[in-house]
Structures are given as structure tokens and as C-alpha cells.
Write a structure and sequence with these properties.
This is Acyltransferase family protein. The protein is mainly α. It has 14 helices and 2 strands. It has 2 domains: about 110 residues, no CATH class; about 200 residues, no CATH class. It has a two-stranded antiparallel ribbon. β1 and β2 form a beta hairpin. α1 runs parallel beside α12, α3 packs across α10 and α9 packs antiparallel against α10.
Length: about 325
Amino acid sequence: MGSKRLDWIDIAKGIAITLVIVGHTVPNPSPLRHAIFSFHMPVFFILAGYTFRPKPWRELLSGSVSRLLVPYVVLALAWQVPTFLMSSAPLTSGTLVAGLKTLVFASGVDVPGLGVTAVGMTWFLAALFTSRLLFNVLVRLFDGRDVRVVWQGVICAAIAFCGLSVSRFMGVYLPLDLDLSCYIALLMWIGYTARQRGLEPSASKPLLFIGAGVAWLVLAALSGLELSSRRVDGFLVATVAALAGSYCVCWVSMALEKLKDVPVLGAFERGLVFCGQASLAIFAIHAVDWFVPWQTMPLLMTLPASWLFASIVRCACDIGLAYVIKKA
């Protein structure tokens, strides 16, 4: 993949990580939050598929453990340990077992029926780890059996639907988000196939961008998607809405890439490239910034549209801290 392509991918990741912060700051429920959640996490998974290369198992495991599983454990503990200390609860064997269950399940929400508490935002890292392993199996199977692309899509969609059915309809959540990873593998396949077939967005085709934008607006309003809680209301409609929204993000990213030499817009483009390159660091900072009462700060609450100012301040803090750490 050339450097130019990496630039637009970084911009898309920069947009997506910014929307993650905003989506966690705006009122819940709200139309804006609904709109953001309809595509902001799928962008990451689709791009993960776009940049995916099948690897030998030892190489895949080594890279995925160091880049995803280890940060997951560190960030999960960085959230869970202070939370436990502030609760003033006694440290018992039962508490340790409950904490271990939380780490093993890696669920973004409480696991019904098992008494397992949510691990918080870090579910994303565990789910991506499991999804990479699952998707590597699928790609090697497809390549080894010479499965046609249409049947690949059917198989991935069937696996995704079954995985969601296990958690949503049967109430069974699997360790390391394996049930959710079945759906994520479908999103990764979409990105992977787009690269294989040369179907990535082109900034020279504005009509496709407009069509995707209209499709996203309509379909997102008719469905609901929140991956941390396994909420995919209207499987087909929600998935197409996520794809359309992700297409728009990638199209805008390619358009911004072409403006990198324009004085003001070029600085904005470089800022988004940084956010994309540092998206994991920004995510890590954001994963532990929940101790700050962004939505209820007295200074911000006195302002009109306080959620807007809270989002701006939160983005500035998370991104700014990531920048300082990188430059240190």
C-alpha cells in the first residue's frame, strides 16, 4: 500500500477517533449520538479489513498480542483498579474472580445472567484481537478453497448473523467478544474485498458520495447500531447504513488529502493525519478519561449547547495529551 493511500486511511481514522470522543460526550439518547454510532466504530473495522494481510499464525498472534491484547489488559486494569479502590469494597477472592471474569469476557456492557461487569471502552481492543484471528481463518479458507466473492459475502453474513443471535436472542455472551467478532469479521471482509476489487472511494466521483450520504441518512434513521452492547437493530439496514457512512468518511478523507498543500486546510489535514496515526494513543487516553465529569462541569454547564463545548474541550485534552506524549 502506497504512502498516499496510507494518508487517507490515517485521515479517516482521525475523523473516526474524534467522533468516538464526541459520541461519548453528547447527550444519550440524542439524534446526534444515534447518527455517530451508526458508523463510527464500523469505520475502524472496515479499515482494519482494508489493510489486512493474511499471515502465518505465529506472526499474526505475535503482532496481535503485542498491539492489541497487551494494551487491552493494561487499559482495562487502568480503569478497573481505580474504580475498585474508589468503591471502598473489601478485596476478597470473590472480588478477584469477578475482576478476572470481566477481563476474560471483555464486554462493553454487563453480561446478563453471569454477573460479569462491563470492562468499559477497552472492549474494542479485545474484539479486534479476536476478529483478526477469526478473519485470518476465513481468508485462508476462502483462498484455499477458491471461494467466489459472492459466496464469501454470504458466508460472512451468515456467521455475523449467527454471532449476534447468540448474544442478542439467546443472551449468551462469549469470552473476548467472540460473538461480536463474528459481526466484525463481516465488516472486515467488506474492507478487505474493497481493496481486492479496487472498490475504494474516489474523490473524483462526488455523485457516489452524495448517494452514499443520502442512503446513510435514511437507513441510519430506520435502524440502530451500538456494537459495544451488540445492538444491531435491523441487521441488513444497519449494516448498509454503516457501510454508507463509512464510505462517506473515506471519501471526505481522500478529498482532504488532495488539499494538504492549501495553507489552512492543509494544516487541518495534517492534524487529522496525526490523529489517525495516534488513534490508539488517543483511544487509550479516552478510555481512562471517564473519571472527568465532562458533561457536568459547572463552567461548561453555564454555556448554551454545553455538550458542544464539552466535546471540544474533551477532544482537545485527549488529542493534546497524545501529542505531548508523542513529542516528549
